[in-house]
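Tutorial, part two.
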Amino acid sequence: MSTPPDPRPAIWKKLLTLEALSARLGESAPSFLGFRITEMGPDYLRGAMRLDHRHVQPWRVLHGGISVVVSETLGSVASYLAVPEGFHCVGIEINANHLAPVPEGQEITAECRPLHTGRSIQVWQTEIRRPDGRLACVSRLTCSVLPD
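Running the prediction step on this input gives:
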């Protein structure tokens, strides 16, 4: 039995493989922190990271700033992929609501989806979850679309 096609349209204007995205992260902050993009769907990106001493506050739970790095990474990559060649995006605002602690040693997963992909502004929402599925952080990134 075949799987029916996904009814949602693919929003990506630039087609990069997960390997190419990982290479593009290269020697950057997300790479240094061990964050990796794990999946690209028709209208989302997913990533994951196991928490160690680099990711926690003194109380040994996920530092809010690391949540913002994860959110901005996924949203920035998504916005780049969602504009045609000849354009790029820059973040102009990010916010994050921290809803539940994640202890050191656990792995977080993150999923980023568009709220708006206009010609001049894009808005991306990222949800970061604990291993038990509980929402740890929800973040919204606004990007400006600019010509190269």
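The longest strand covers residues 135-147. In part three we will examine how such features are distributed along the chain.
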